[in-house]
Amino acid sequence: MSYLTNSVAVNLTLAVLFVFSVVTWALILSKFWQNTRGNKKDAAFKQAFWAAKDLHEGEKVARAHTGDMAELTTAGFAALAQTTEVSLSLDSLGDRKDILERTLKSELQQIQHRKEHGLMALASIGSTAPFVGLFGTVWGIMHALKDISLSNSASLDIVAGPVGEALIATAFGIATAIPAVLAYNYGLRRVRTTVAGLDQFATAFLHLVMKTPYRAEGKKAEVKD
Protein backbone atom coordinates (compact mmCIF):
# COMPACT_ATOMS: atom_id res chain seq x y z
CA MET A 1 0.00 0.00 0.00
CA SER A 2 1.37 3.42 -0.90
CA TYR A 3 1.72 6.03 1.84
CA LEU A 4 0.43 8.64 -0.58
CA THR A 5 -3.29 8.80 -1.12
CA ASN A 6 -5.45 10.38 -3.76
CA SER A 7 -6.52 13.16 -1.39
CA VAL A 8 -4.44 16.32 -1.64
CA ALA A 9 -5.39 17.24 1.93
CA VAL A 10 -4.05 13.94 3.29
CA ASN A 11 -0.84 14.34 1.30
CA LEU A 12 -0.35 17.84 2.68
CA THR A 13 -1.02 16.55 6.20
CA LEU A 14 1.62 13.86 5.80
CA ALA A 15 4.05 16.47 4.46
CA VAL A 16 3.46 18.71 7.50
CA LEU A 17 3.95 15.76 9.86
CA PHE A 18 7.16 14.88 8.05
CA VAL A 19 8.46 18.41 8.61
CA PHE A 20 7.44 18.18 12.27
CA SER A 21 9.35 14.93 12.58
CA VAL A 22 12.49 16.37 11.00
CA VAL A 23 12.37 19.40 13.32
CA THR A 24 11.82 17.14 16.34
CA TRP A 25 14.80 14.91 15.65
CA ALA A 26 16.99 17.86 14.75
CA LEU A 27 16.20 19.44 18.13
CA ILE A 28 16.72 16.12 19.93
CA LEU A 29 20.17 15.63 18.41
CA SER A 30 21.10 19.28 18.94
CA LYS A 31 20.06 19.25 22.60
CA PHE A 32 21.86 15.95 23.22
CA TRP A 33 25.07 17.32 21.73
CA GLN A 34 24.80 20.59 23.66
CA ASN A 35 24.14 18.82 26.97
CA THR A 36 26.99 16.36 26.50
CA ARG A 37 29.46 19.05 25.55
CA GLY A 38 28.24 21.39 28.31
CA ASN A 39 28.57 18.72 31.01
CA LYS A 40 32.16 18.01 29.99
CA LYS A 41 33.05 21.70 30.00
CA ASP A 42 31.46 22.31 33.40
CA ALA A 43 33.15 19.26 34.93
CA ALA A 44 36.57 20.34 33.62
CA PHE A 45 36.10 23.92 34.82
CA LYS A 46 34.82 22.90 38.26
CA GLN A 47 37.81 20.69 38.85
CA ALA A 48 40.26 23.37 37.73
CA PHE A 49 38.55 26.17 39.67
CA TRP A 50 38.51 24.43 43.04
CA ALA A 51 42.14 23.43 42.51
CA ALA A 52 43.14 27.11 42.19
CA LYS A 53 45.30 28.55 44.99
CA ASP A 54 43.32 31.77 45.38
CA LEU A 55 40.53 33.83 43.81
CA HIS A 56 42.86 35.58 41.38
CA GLU A 57 43.98 32.26 39.99
CA GLY A 58 40.36 31.15 40.00
CA GLU A 59 39.46 34.17 37.90
CA LYS A 60 42.14 33.24 35.37
CA VAL A 61 40.76 29.71 35.26
CA ALA A 62 37.26 31.06 34.60
CA ARG A 63 38.45 33.26 31.75
CA ALA A 64 40.41 30.39 30.22
CA HIS A 65 37.43 28.02 30.14
CA THR A 66 34.12 28.03 28.31
CA GLY A 67 30.77 26.66 29.39
CA ASP A 68 27.88 27.71 31.60
CA MET A 69 29.73 27.41 34.91
CA ALA A 70 32.75 29.33 33.64
CA GLU A 71 30.45 31.98 32.16
CA LEU A 72 28.64 32.31 35.49
CA THR A 73 31.91 32.65 37.40
CA THR A 74 33.31 35.19 34.95
CA ALA A 75 30.18 37.31 35.36
CA GLY A 76 30.63 37.14 39.13
CA PHE A 77 34.24 38.32 38.94
CA ALA A 78 33.21 41.08 36.52
CA ALA A 79 30.65 42.29 39.06
CA LEU A 80 33.26 42.28 41.80
CA ALA A 81 35.61 44.29 39.60
CA GLN A 82 32.98 47.05 39.39
CA THR A 83 32.81 47.47 43.14
CA THR A 84 34.93 50.21 44.64
CA GLU A 85 35.21 49.06 48.22
CA VAL A 86 38.72 49.15 49.67
CA SER A 87 37.99 47.79 53.11
CA LEU A 88 36.29 44.79 54.61
CA SER A 89 33.77 46.78 56.63
CA LEU A 90 30.25 45.45 57.07
CA ASP A 91 28.84 48.17 54.81
CA SER A 92 31.14 47.34 51.93
CA LEU A 93 30.57 43.62 52.36
CA GLY A 94 26.82 44.17 52.25
CA ASP A 95 27.01 46.15 49.02
CA ARG A 96 29.42 43.64 47.57
CA LYS A 97 27.13 40.73 48.37
CA ASP A 98 24.05 42.43 46.92
CA ILE A 99 25.83 43.24 43.67
CA LEU A 100 27.20 39.73 43.34
CA GLU A 101 23.85 38.07 44.16
CA ARG A 102 22.01 40.16 41.57
CA THR A 103 24.64 39.44 38.94
CA LEU A 104 24.68 35.70 39.56
CA LYS A 105 20.87 35.54 39.58
CA SER A 106 20.64 37.47 36.31
CA GLU A 107 23.28 35.26 34.68
CA LEU A 108 21.50 32.11 35.87
CA GLN A 109 18.25 33.32 34.32
CA GLN A 110 19.98 34.01 31.00
CA ILE A 111 21.54 30.54 31.00
CA GLN A 112 18.19 28.95 31.81
CA HIS A 113 16.42 30.83 29.02
CA ARG A 114 19.12 29.81 26.58
CA LYS A 115 18.87 26.16 27.58
CA GLU A 116 15.08 26.21 27.29
CA HIS A 117 15.34 27.39 23.70
CA GLY A 118 13.71 24.81 21.44
CA LEU A 119 11.74 23.07 24.17
CA MET A 120 8.58 25.03 23.37
CA ALA A 121 8.81 23.84 19.78
CA LEU A 122 8.94 20.23 21.01
CA ALA A 123 5.96 20.85 23.29
CA SER A 124 3.99 22.43 20.45
CA ILE A 125 4.75 19.56 18.07
CA GLY A 126 3.90 16.98 20.71
CA SER A 127 0.53 18.57 21.42
CA THR A 128 -0.53 19.38 17.85
CA ALA A 129 0.83 16.49 15.75
CA PRO A 130 -1.92 14.00 16.76
CA PHE A 131 -4.61 16.51 15.86
CA VAL A 132 -2.94 17.28 12.54
CA GLY A 133 -2.91 13.57 11.80
CA LEU A 134 -6.53 13.23 12.89
CA PHE A 135 -7.50 16.07 10.57
CA GLY A 136 -5.85 14.25 7.68
CA THR A 137 -7.65 11.05 8.60
CA VAL A 138 -11.06 12.70 8.81
CA TRP A 139 -10.53 14.49 5.53
CA GLY A 140 -9.27 11.32 3.89
CA ILE A 141 -12.28 9.31 5.07
CA MET A 142 -14.63 12.00 3.76
CA HIS A 143 -12.83 11.85 0.43
CA ALA A 144 -12.98 8.04 0.45
CA LEU A 145 -16.70 7.97 1.26
CA LYS A 146 -17.36 10.39 -1.56
CA ASP A 147 -15.52 8.16 -4.01
CA ILE A 148 -17.39 5.10 -2.69
CA SER A 149 -20.75 6.82 -3.19
CA LEU A 150 -19.81 7.67 -6.76
CA SER A 151 -18.78 4.08 -7.44
CA ASN A 152 -22.22 2.80 -6.34
CA SER A 153 -20.54 -0.02 -4.44
CA ALA A 154 -19.84 -0.56 -0.74
CA SER A 155 -17.89 -3.79 -0.89
CA LEU A 156 -15.06 -4.35 1.58
CA ASP A 157 -12.41 -4.19 -1.12
CA ILE A 158 -13.51 -0.71 -2.13
CA VAL A 159 -14.01 0.64 1.41
CA ALA A 160 -10.95 -0.83 3.16
CA GLY A 161 -8.32 0.62 0.84
CA PRO A 162 -9.15 4.35 1.00
CA VAL A 163 -10.10 4.26 4.69
CA GLY A 164 -6.89 2.41 5.58
CA GLU A 165 -4.81 4.95 3.70
CA ALA A 166 -6.59 7.79 5.49
CA LEU A 167 -5.80 6.23 8.88
CA ILE A 168 -2.09 6.44 8.06
CA ALA A 169 -2.26 10.16 8.83
CA THR A 170 -3.31 9.44 12.43
CA ALA A 171 -0.53 6.88 12.80
CA PHE A 172 2.01 9.39 11.49
CA GLY A 173 0.67 12.04 13.87
CA ILE A 174 1.07 9.78 16.91
CA ALA A 175 4.50 8.59 15.74
CA THR A 176 5.60 12.22 15.43
CA ALA A 177 4.15 13.32 18.76
CA ILE A 178 5.64 10.58 20.97
CA PRO A 179 9.34 11.47 20.46
CA ALA A 180 8.55 15.18 20.78
CA VAL A 181 6.74 14.74 24.11
CA LEU A 182 9.42 12.43 25.51
CA ALA A 183 12.19 14.79 24.39
CA TYR A 184 10.40 17.79 25.90
CA ASN A 185 9.96 16.11 29.29
CA TYR A 186 13.54 14.88 29.34
CA GLY A 187 14.89 18.24 28.17
CA LEU A 188 12.93 20.09 30.84
CA ARG A 189 14.32 17.80 33.54
CA ARG A 190 17.84 18.32 32.22
CA VAL A 191 17.42 22.10 32.30
CA ARG A 192 16.17 22.01 35.89
CA THR A 193 18.99 19.68 36.95
CA THR A 194 21.63 21.81 35.24
CA VAL A 195 20.29 25.08 36.65
CA ALA A 196 20.10 23.53 40.13
CA GLY A 197 23.76 22.51 39.85
CA LEU A 198 24.73 25.99 38.69
CA ASP A 199 22.75 27.52 41.55
CA GLN A 200 24.62 25.37 44.05
CA PHE A 201 27.94 26.43 42.54
CA ALA A 202 26.87 30.08 42.57
CA THR A 203 26.01 29.81 46.28
CA ALA A 204 29.39 28.24 47.06
CA PHE A 205 31.14 30.91 44.99
CA LEU A 206 29.27 33.67 46.81
CA HIS A 207 30.22 32.29 50.23
CA LEU A 208 33.83 31.91 49.10
CA VAL A 209 34.07 35.50 47.92
CA MET A 210 32.43 36.83 51.08
CA LYS A 211 34.96 35.19 53.38
CA THR A 212 38.03 35.63 51.18
CA PRO A 213 39.74 39.01 50.64
CA TYR A 214 39.63 39.85 46.95
CA ARG A 215 40.16 42.90 44.78
CA ALA A 216 40.29 42.99 41.04
CA GLU A 217 43.78 43.20 39.62
CA GLY A 218 44.81 46.76 38.98
CA LYS A 219 42.86 48.18 41.95
CA LYS A 220 44.85 49.54 44.80
CA ALA A 221 43.65 50.07 48.29
CA GLU A 222 43.32 53.67 49.38
CA VAL A 223 45.53 54.69 52.27
CA LYS A 224 43.66 56.53 54.97
CA ASP A 225 45.35 59.13 57.11
Low-confidence stretches: 1-5, 219-225
- Domain count: the total is 1
The overall strand count is: 0
Order of helices and strands: HHHHHH
Summed over residues and divided by their number, the pLDDT gives a mean of 83
Number of helices: 6
Radius of gyration, Cα only, in angstroms?
29 Å
Q: Report, as a whole number of angstroms, the end-to-end distance.
A: 94 Å
Q: How much of the polypeptide forms β-strand, as a percent range?
A: under 5%
Oligomeric state of shown chains: single chain
Helix content: over 70%
Structural class: mainly alpha
Describe the structure.
With 225 residues, the protein is mainly alpha-helical. The chain has one domain. Helices cover 81% and strands 0% of the residues. The chain contains 6 helices and no strands. Helix 1 packs parallel to helix 6 and helix 4 runs antiparallel to helix 6. The N terminus and C terminus are likely disordered.
Descriptors for this entry?
disordered C terminus; 225 residues; 6 helices; single chain; mainly alpha
In short:
The protein is mainly alpha-helical. Helices cover 81% and strands 0% of the residues.
